[in-house]
């Protein structure tokens, strides 16, 4: 198939450091290319891909201090997509909602993966207005606040099977917290849980400008107070394998309707069990007693740490291999592309038509 992948421009594809959506777009794009599809990626110019790259900006918008408003750049990208839309058998958007009015002319060949939370009050009336667009959820729980819409399916994220090597030893005597410093991620819980367990906690996390005051007011004092806590900051993909792989467990103490939670399957790929609070997608991702423990309180989390020796890290990795590889993710999306009402036919007919015109011109 000839497939367009349309990525957000905040981060490169893949991102240099933090960035879940762009990372998944990269894994999906590369796996589709590996499987023999002809893929065009619309993204920032500093993206790295084996697909055809259509660079919209020189660099990821988050890295450009001159950028004040990101919407004009996304509008520029959508104009590029609109001009080339007839070339593709399927167009896969990862930018939430900006494209939906523009995509009516080729709606039968489009699918949109919703990567964020959907429990915000402004979203139901919007998606009710555009209810005919094919949407993909990244967990079943993510769908719950939505009005009736055209769900194409739930497709879980996946990672390349060889991206993060499993470490099958017992793990070192520290707990890992990986992601973003924000109230809904609850690093304060992670700090208290680690302190009660007697284990060291290593925090590898990004601090966005919007969360800077939360860090300074709530979390930095805890980091300073507890001698067992080490704040590392943002880490890259290479550092992530060691950081997660050598941990006794990943703490995922969230307090919000997590749409998926990519870090959970990253830990599983490293054969590192996950101790996660029962929120959002967690019960869909973690198999309790196999790939980790699902808990409802800090007391239960401390008890789960004591039970970590009961888990077989080989089974943690096996749970990842069975459900969360990029190969499986790409296969699920290709099946969905084929099911789109306008997929393959319109674009294929146009390409054949253009081919006939070219042949006639040569003959003439």
UniProtKB/TrEMBL annotation:
<protein>
    <recommendedName>
        <fullName>Glycosyl transferase family 1 domain-containing protein</fullName>
    </recommendedName>
</protein>
<feature type="domain" description="Glycosyl transferase family 1">
    <location>
        <begin position="171"/>
        <end position="310"/>
    </location>
</feature>
<dbReference type="Pfam" id="PF00534">
    <property type="entry name" value="Glycos_transf_1"/>
</dbReference>
<feature type="domain" description="Glycosyltransferase subfamily 4-like N-terminal">
    <location>
        <begin position="18"/>
        <end position="126"/>
    </location>
</feature>
<dbReference type="InterPro" id="IPR028098">
    <property type="entry name" value="Glyco_trans_4-like_N"/>
</dbReference>
<dbReference type="Pfam" id="PF13439">
    <property type="entry name" value="Glyco_transf_4"/>
</dbReference>
<dbReference type="InterPro" id="IPR001296">
    <property type="entry name" value="Glyco_trans_1"/>
</dbReference>
<dbReference type="GO" id="GO:0016757">
    <property type="term" value="F:glycosyltransferase activity"/>
</dbReference>
